[in-house]
Specification:
This protein is an alpha+beta fold and about 170 residues long. Helices cover about 25% and strands about 25% of the residues.
């Protein structure tokens, strides 16, 4: 049985998937929003060429150009072991598996990051008001946070799986 909230999340996921393709086209024209990395100095920095060598093309698109992976494509959606999710760009641990939940949106979702792991930045790109989430150490774009998550925080950190790695073990 589908609840109102599940139906809304599926609708949003499908809309975001379509939006992803439009944003990719705009990004190709040089119309993307400025990244957090462009506005702040971070502990881990690399030249554009170095980032391109360190990351896969899809990781580079998300982490360095604020791209979005297609919904329901990340193997991390089905990751249910105990452990930590880290930044694919610099390996900083960002989320505990204890805070992961199935949001039904097609992206790994968490109700809380680890302390001092992420930065939250107002994002008004493409006519929407959202809060972008970036890695505190390298400035890599991870996804966005929304206020429709579960208790205890009521938040949904909707992350691109390609921007994360998983480290099994203690959560």
């Amino acid at each position: 049985m589908m609840t109102k909230q599940t139906t809304r999340r599926i609708f949003l996921a499908l809309g975001a998937t379509g939006l992803t393709y439009g944003l990719t086209a705009l990004r190709g024209l040089g119309l993307s929003n400025a990244t957090a990395a462009g506005a702040t100095t971070f502990e881990v920095t690399h030249s554009e060429a170095e980032w391109r060598k360190l990351l896969t093309p899809s990781q580079y698109s998300v982490l360095r150009e604020e791209g979005t992976e297609r919904a329901f494509t990340s193997p991390l959606n089905d990751e249910h072991r105990s452990g930590r999710f880290a930044c694919a760009g610099c390996a900083l641990e960002l989320f505990s598996s204890k805070t992961k939940f199935d949001s039904g949106t097609g992206w790994p979702s968490f109700w809380q990051p680890l302390p001092k792991a992420v930065l939250e930045i107002s994002d008004s790109s493409f006519g929407m008001m959202r809060t972008a989430v970036s890695c505190r150490r390298c400035g890599g774009h991870l996804g966005h946070v929304f206020d429709d998550g579960p208790k205890p925080t009521g938040l949904r950190y909707c992350m691109n799986g390609v921007a994360l790695s998983f480290k099994p073990g203690a959560a």
